[in-house]
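Hi F.,

I've been meaning to write this up properly since the lab meeting, where we talked about keeping a consistent format for the predictions we share between groups. The idea is simple: the sequence comes first, exactly as it goes in, then the structure tokens exactly as they come out, then a line or two of notes. No screenshots and no reformatting. I'm using this chain as the first example so we have something concrete to point to.
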Amino acid sequence: MEHIIRIDDLVFEYKREEQLEPVRAVNQVSLEIERGSFTAIIGRNGSGKSTLAKNINALLLPSSGAVYVKGLNTADDTKLWEIRQAAGMVFQNPDNQLVSSIVEDDVAFGPENLGIEPGEIRRRVDDSLYSVNMYEERKKAPHLLSGGQKQRIAIAGVIAMRPECIILDEPTAMLDPHGRAEVMEIIQKLHREGITIILITHFMEEAAKADRVIIMDSGRVVLDGEPAQVFLHIEEIKSLNLDVPFAVDLACRLRKRGVEIPENLITTEEMVEYIACRFK
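Output, unedited:
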């Protein structure tokens, strides 16, 4: 399949005032992300996952190595707008992303800055709000919305730029369970529509819904593959101070008690369905 993102031997370092030596946040990472795929990147705080995401969007530039978005080198400042239009980014705190006092004006902000003609902006705003189920709230002030609704508006603002890839940096971290479910539903819908999704998260249940899971630690990729394969490495994952999805942990406990459970069950929904059919 065609790769929309290519990362070659990426190193990113930053300096702290109290330290002479730079801190290496991303350490020789090489990855390819297929067009239309859904990749989850997980890791504990300080693992380098958010730094990696910001390098893909050209918010940060490599200390060495290279990142390519649709074949464009992120270090080429003449291609910056093309890169960020192709790979939009949604951040953790929705309040930091909303710039207008009216929802639809906020969604229009990006296309307006691209110089798109008004009629097309109107179509994009309406389409984007419909896609995140927020069209009925288009005339409201963002501060009147819930956290989950605000994050959906932030996603709509990115969608209005017509990106082929959306990078979401812990978009549900500040939301309650209902808000997280709302946002994950939108993310899965966008993926089904063909948008490439890169989701940075520390919620294992969210990662389990992806096509591919990458686990980072100390700036390096330590596990990479389909969720069912990655989450078989239970002890290694726990040694990184990470959890595994509830269904994976439950299946492991049941197997130790002699109950046969397929290894490809990784989501709670799959486990509930299997147990209901197996033991009815």
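Notes:
The longest helix spans residues 177-192.
The first strand starts at residue 3 and ends at 14.

If this format works for you, I'll send the rest the same way.

G.
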